[in-house]
């Protein structure tokens, strides 16, 4: 075999090995992403906790983001807010708990005409999450004045009654149906996945780069054969 052929073959073998390692790294990263989803789903499936008991007097909140919570009180009328970048939009209302603190609650998804009847004191349950991240989207052009594309709690502080809890609750499908609304999806927080899978993925990619580099070094070190 010629020197050029042997060098090319050596590099080709290194590339093939690198491709296999890249695939293994992608598989491990997929496992990492799956572990994130699994952990978030597990938190959301845990038994609900009383929201009022999970908030200290100074407003500090326990590790309950992404979990189901229970709260008792009533909707404060006259503050309905539509949130979203397209129809149907999330219907958000202030919910005053029995201890006097205000919690934004996503009742569900509604169209242009949304009228929330005063249901009086009640108990509700849903997923507790932090405020939405700010984005570049805007509400629909025909949305009512005051509508927003994202649920930014900072913007509600100056508009809604106080004191307000640093988070909001999204009701499930059954609770949304009681208000004649479609269910809204709760934005589950990102949680830490399995560091083991992430570490293995990075390891495989380092090995892939090393494999190509090694094959190039070996190929360049080959010498012509003397017949």
From TrEMBL:
Transmembrane segment boundaries: 9-27, 202-222
Subcellular location: Cell membrane
Pfam families, A to Z: SURF1
Record keywords: Cell membrane, Membrane, Transmembrane, Transmembrane helix
Lipid bilayer topology: Multi-pass membrane protein
Main subcellular localisation: membrane
GO annotation, cellular component aspect: plasma membrane
Similarity annotation: Belongs to the SURF1 family.
UniProt protein name: SURF1-like protein
């Amino acid at each position: 075999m010629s020197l050029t052929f042997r060098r090319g073959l050596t590099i080709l073998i290194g590339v093939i090995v690198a491709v296999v390692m890249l695939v293994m790294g992608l598989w491990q990263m997929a496992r990492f992403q799956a572990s994130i989803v699994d952990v978030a789903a597990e938190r959301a499936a845990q038994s609900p906790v009383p929201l009022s008991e999970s908030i200290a007097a100074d407003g500090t909140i326990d590790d309950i983001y992404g979990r189901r919570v229970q709260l008792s009180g009533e909707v404060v009328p006259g503050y309905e807010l539509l949130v979203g970048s397209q129809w149907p939009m999330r219907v958000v209302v202030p919910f005053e708990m029995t201890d006097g603190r205000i919690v934004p609650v996503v009742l569900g998804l509604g169209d242009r005409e949304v009228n929330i009847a005063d249901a009086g004191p009640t108990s509700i349950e849903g997923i507790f999450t932090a405020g939405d991240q700010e984005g570049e989207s805007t509400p629909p052009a025909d949305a009512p004045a005051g509508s927003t594309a994202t649920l930014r709690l900072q913007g509600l502080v100056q508009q809604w009654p106080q004191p307000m809890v640093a988070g909001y609750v999204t009701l499930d499908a059954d609770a949304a149906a009681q208000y004649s609304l479609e269910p809204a999806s709760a934005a589950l927080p990102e949680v830490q996945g399995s560091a083991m899978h992430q570490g293995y993925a990075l390891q495989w990619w380092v090995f892939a780069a090393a494999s190509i580099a090694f094959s190039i070094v070996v190929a360049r070190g080959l010498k012509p054969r003397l017949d």
